[in-house]
């Protein structure tokens, strides 16, 4: 039964105020069991790829989908039936594959006993289609979302955004991929078809019956890693290039991902980074690791032909401190097959947001006096406008994490636009963070500077921490874009 327990109490926040998600202190405590139900050994369960959503109708300009948001059962742990909340009852939800410039209309029916909202994360859509908590779908009701897809190719995702409830509802399964492609990308020759694989990474906690166990800000006990809803799976791959679309779908866990054989020691094997949140980078980059805070995406190309057939290559999380949180998944390399894909020297267009007119400061912290997370000293109020922004004007936002004691990480997500990350703690960012972004990590006691411009629609958009337990406890605000 879904409840609001812990949403407005200090609870685990105060108890673990000095515990930093991703730290040895957070994961090393043994005052409770790491998992209350037996989980399979790493790499004993095959990976599954989320099914593609099928349009119920197509016209010359539009694809129409019907989805039902409902309670269902899924086999996450082998032989165990786990109750979930799912789009069409699936975990993760079905993948919507959209074409840039071609409209997608999704009719969502709420078959649950409580309201829900669907947010297209990374979508450049009008406020009324964005999934604002004020636009809830009542039990038994329907809502039609219209996405014009006037944006470049990108790995997006959709998830619940209910008022004060998004953390628990996403934790219980309300998330799925939304992939946009455009003609420019199709002409690049990147790996495609079954060699273009979306991977939703997240953690979970189960009780002794194998049911999801949710407690607010309970990061340190969520020690079962899932990829596409499967625990630490393996995937058989041909010895050729693959595009892996990596999404951190966790509520609070950070991942630093590295690819390699054996126990994950050493520098890690090279991956070619081709895209971040907002789409393709201007040019490919070589990296031996990538860091993803919750909700961030990065697309990489891995050439498995460099490995001998029979090689087992592991995707490691170097932020983990145990087998449960270090080994993410394994790739079992098969025989070489013909491969006509490539990674060209030029990919997408560089972001150019122009010269900034306004500079703003955004302060994020845990207010221990009220036991809630706040932005600029306030908890979220749907009826309050916190910032007014003029459409078409470029601004610089200095986003500060004021939590030094207690040490609490945050990140920052802006709805309705993409931004450019200028620097973190005064140092320029590199890698996928240099591309178009909608979410960025904010270091403990530090800051990031981002360049933002809303140049499409008027109306209200949210900005918040995407550690969803934090946003559910108030760390969210809203901007109004004015003419």
TrEMBL record:
Superkingdom, natural source: Bacteria
Catalysed transformations (reactions): 4 Cu(+) + O2 + 4 H(+) = 4 Cu(2+) + 2 H2O
Pfam families: Cu-oxidase (PF00394), Cu-oxidase_2 (PF07731), Cu-oxidase_3 (PF07732)
CDD domains in the record: CuRO_3_CueO_FtsP (cd13890)
Keywords (A to Z) from UniProt: Metal-binding, Oxidoreductase
UniProt keyword Plastid present: no
Residue span(s) of domain Plastocyanin-like: 70-184, 225-316, 371-480
Catalytic activity, EC: 1.16.3.4
InterPro entries xref list: Cu-oxidase-like_N, Cu-oxidase_2nd, Cu-oxidase_C, Cu-oxidase_fam, Cu_oxidase_Cu_BS, Cupredoxin, TAT_signal
Gene3D superfamilies xrefs: Cupredoxins - blue copper proteins
Subunit description: Monomer.
Family: Belongs to the multicopper oxidase family.
Protein name, UniProt field: Multicopper oxidase CueO
Organism, as annotated: Actinomadura chokoriensis
Classification lineage: Bacteria, Bacillati, Actinomycetota, Actinomycetes, Streptosporangiales
């Amino acid at each position: 039964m879904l409840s609001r327990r812990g949403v407005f109490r200090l609870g685990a926040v105060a108890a673990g105020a000095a515990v930093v998600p991703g730290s040895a202190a957070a994961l090393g405590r043994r005052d409770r069991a790491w998992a209350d139900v037996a989980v399979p050994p790493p790499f004993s369960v095959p990976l599954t790829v989320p099914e593609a959503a099928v349009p119920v109708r197509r016209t010359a300009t539009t694809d129409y989908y019907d989805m039902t948001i409902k309670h269902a059962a899924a086999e996450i742990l082998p032989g165990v039936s786990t109750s979930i909340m799912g789009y069409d009852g699936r975990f993760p939800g079905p993948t919507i594959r959209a074409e840039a410039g071609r409209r997608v209309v999704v009719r969502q029916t709420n078959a649950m006993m409580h309201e829900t909202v669907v947010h297209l994360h990374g979508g450049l859509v009008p406020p009324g289609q964005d999934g604002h908590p004020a636009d809830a779908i009542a039990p038994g009701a329907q809502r039609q979302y219209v996405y014009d897809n006037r944006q470049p190719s990108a790995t997006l995702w959709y998830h619940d955004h209910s008022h004060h409830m998004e953390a628990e509802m996403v934790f219980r399964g309300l998330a799925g991929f939304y992939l946009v492609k455009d003609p420019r990308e199709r002409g690049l020759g990147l790996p495609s078809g079954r060699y273009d694989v979306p991977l939703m990474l997240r953690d979970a906690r189960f009780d002794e019956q194998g049911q999801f166990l949710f407690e607010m800000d309970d990061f340190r006990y969520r020690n079962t890693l899932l990829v596409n809803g499967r625990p630490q799976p393996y995937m058989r791959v041909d010895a050729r290039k693959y595009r892996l679309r990596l999404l951190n779908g966790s509520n609070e866990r950070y991942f630093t991902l590295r690819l390699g054989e054996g126990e994950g020691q050493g520098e890690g094997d090279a991956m070619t980074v081709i895209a971040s949140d907002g789409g393709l980078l201007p040019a490919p980059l070589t990296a031996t690791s990538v860091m993803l805070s919750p909700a961030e995406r990065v697309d990489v190309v891995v050439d498995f032909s460099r490995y001998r057939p029979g090689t087992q290559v592991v995707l490691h999380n170097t932020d983990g401190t145990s087998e449960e949180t270090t080994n993410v998944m394994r790739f079992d390399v098969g025989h070489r097959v013909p491969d006509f894909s490539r990674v060209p020297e030029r990919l997408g267009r560089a972001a150019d947001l122009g010269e900034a007119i306004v500079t703003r400061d955004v302060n994020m912290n845990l207010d221990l006096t009220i036991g809630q997370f706040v932005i600029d000293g306030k908890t979220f109020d749907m009826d309050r406008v916190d910032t007014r922004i003029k459409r078409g004007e470029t601004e610089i936002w200095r986003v500060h994490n004021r939590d030094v004691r207690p040490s609490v990480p945050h990140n920052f997500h802006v709805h309705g636009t993409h931004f450019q990350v200028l620097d973190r703690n005064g140092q320029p960012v590199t890698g996928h963070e240099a591309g178009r972004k909608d979410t960025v990590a904010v270091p403990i006691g530090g800051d990031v500077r981002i360049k933002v411009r809303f140049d499409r629609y008027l109306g209200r958009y949210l900005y918040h921490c995407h550690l969803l337990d934090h946003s559910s406890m108030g760390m969210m605000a809203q901007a109004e874009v004015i003419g």
